[in-house]
Design a protein that fits this description.
Belongs to the JARID1 histone demethylase family. The protein is α+β, with helices and mostly antiparallel strands. The protein has two domains: 246 residues, Jelly Rolls; 155 residues, no CATH class. α14 packs parallel to α17 and α15 crosses α16. The radius of gyration is 32 Å and the shape is elongated.
Amino acid sequence: MVSNRSSVRTAMEESLQIQRLEEAPSARDFESRIESTNVPAVFNGCVKDWKAFSKWNPSNGGLDYLQVPLPFSAFIGLCKQRMRHSEDGSGACFESEQRGLLEPVSEYDREPYEDAPQQIYLAQVPIINTENEDRVQLESLREDIQTPVFLEDKVLASTNLWMNNAQARSSTHYDPHHNLLCIVSGCKQVVLWPPSASAILYPMPIYGEASNHSSVPLENPDFSNYPRAQCLMEYSQKVILHAGDALFIPEGWFHQVDSDDLTIAVNFWWRSNIVSNMSEHMDAYYLRIILRRLTDKEMNRVLPKSSLAEMENKKKHTCVVLNNGGVDQNDNDLDQACERKDLKGKELEQRTMSHELEPLAIHALHELVSLVHHRVNAAELRQPVQSTTTTDSAASVKDEFTKVVRANSFSLEDDPVAKIIWALQPCTFRNVFLAMVKNFPRTLEALILHLLSPVGAEVLTCKFEEMDQQITEEDRNRFYQVFYGAFDDQFAAMDAILNGKELFALQAYKNVLDKYLGVDWGGPKPGV
């Protein structure tokens, strides 16, 4: 049985849904239709024809068969003792998802193993290991299992035995190899998350010994420490495996495994084609490409595109606001002591008169001017910001951002300037800033040099690009000539925008390191 929460289809792509097959595929079909997609699949009854399926069954004397020389025989003895003191010899399977999987194991007599722990999980005991034959401990069991036909062409790294004498739960982790988990006896419940959900699982630091494990305690997660984990189960898929079933777990898929009493399983590990074909001399390039792609994805997460419906709602909201008043005539106080810059072109001048702007532009202009006046100290604005090519001066320009903008601001919703600009269509955006140049040049200078955050700088350049695509080269050149002409030092304005844009990308990169590599560089924490 494969079960998904109803919301998972909206949270995950359809292409990531686990399929269950009644017949084992051929080697060619497995490689082309299943392995190549890197999505899990269940094969019903795939290993029922193994000798182990009958010989290892605890209900049919399988524990006597498995009692080989120590240390394995000691474990088998504990399993026998567990069977004698359980209510039935077969154990109960995961018939209901509602059943608690961590309920205490019942007490039993401790003779002849009175000092033995109540629960033992025999994990990853090699039956075959092509990478290190000295590690093989259970080669005598090799003839009881068969490599599934669809894996016959694979170069297997290892084949291992997994066995527990009582209910057991694994940690949440991923494997660096493809994995085929085969249930010989008992039941297992497997919860899986795709690699794309890594961020909500908070992987352990990449430099640690347990770098492939999640740091979130799924039984009782602390959402104050792991806020992204609140949507954990929406991205999960649950599979219940019975004796004879097999589950393909692709490399990189996080999974947590719950095992019922006396469950026996065998798994096969092999390297994926992708990893096998990676040339070592290309590693640094692949690393940079992947980090760049994840950084771009993080930047796009912060700046979502507005839908047409959202834009219509914005327009309606603006009309309501405008009915309560227009631009305050006192908004030009900052500019009274400053000589206005001359604008070139009669047509351009006509467009930038604030009383001739469309309602959306008037509202945006009013909000931007008001924000500057409320947040920036007028005395501070009288000190000019000079541009320079030295590193020290570049750092001082970046320091301007921290005077007014909160250091941990990396959200469009928390940045009023960026939010106003982001909502503007290219034509409206152009008219607003031309009007600012014409009517409030010192306010514009204060906005760019003192109030523009890294998010705001990224938004501003995005809007520049959108506008550039919709106007002629002549209008484009004229706009930037007028825009930067409003500043006493044009290069200081360019530096402020560029430095802010780079700071935005840097914070996105730091978020990627935190989300996917478990490396905390400090600063704002990425949201869900």
